[in-house]
Amino acid sequence: MQMKAIQAKTIISSVKQDSWFGLKYNMNLYRGCQHGCIYCDSRSSCYGMDDFEEIQYKENALELLEKELKGKRVKGTIGTGSMHDPYMPVEKELQLTRSALQVIRRQGFPVHVLTKSTLVLRDMDLLQEISRIYAAVSITITTGEDKLASVIEPNAPGSAERFDAIKQLSQNGIYTGILMMPILPYINDTEENIRNIVSRARDAGAKYILPWMGVTLRDRQRTYFFKQLDKSFPGLRESYVKSFGDAYYCPARREKQLYEFLQAECEKAGIKIKMDVYEPAGVEQLSFL
Predict the structure, then answer these.
(1) For strand 3-6 and strand 55-58, is the pairing parallel, antiparallel, or unpaired?
(2) Torsion of CA 177, 81, 158, 44, to 10 degrees
(3) Given CB 3.0 to 4.6 Å as the disulfide criterion, which of 30, 113, 151, 253 pairs with 84?
(4) How confident is the model over 81-122, as pLDDT tens digits?
């Protein structure tokens, strides 16, 4: 594994009004990711990472975070995990995410962690403390089958381990749910897969499931994805080319019906398809209809 220390100019960016993940700010402590998911959008050239396998860590991140949070007038939710997984294996050694959570706790900000990793359990103590204000952990699960997960998300923990992490987080009072995204056309876009995820989410105590019935593909991301399809799903590249051409958004088969099916299954299981987000005091929330 290649690893490189870099200096960041800033560590916190503002997010446009977000009713889905509830974010006001976004934080990326690393560049690149070790999980090797075949569909990862962060491989796209627009993000400027020529070698996505090289993990870059921002060695001045904590100093910047402390300084920047002190200057924020609105204590909105800080999200982490949009461009990398904050709990990929290198985090065991560097502990940047844990240290950042300590700063966030000290500064009194809410947080929303997005991850595929069970390493998030290590920081249960900090998340419980931040939960006095607001803390959410969303764990990505795209399939209930470990065998398929090992193909499309090869270096991440298996689905069974992720469901167990959800259970532990939920049992310890952490607001926890599932990112069911992306649902890949011709691979996991079936009612059987959705039913399996919802059933196991219910058993694990997940409070919500946020879905995305499709996948986005562009330039280097598409090239890598097609290469992995040729390796693991021979002949499937042709179906993508025929169905979507060079389109950015590639919807799941029967997209509308799958959303409706998910909603019905979640209603039966008592699971929301929209998470409860933190609302900063004194800030008017917009209504999205």
Answers:
(1) parallel
(2) 130
(3) 30
(4) 888 999 999 999 999 999 999 999 999 999 999 999 999 999
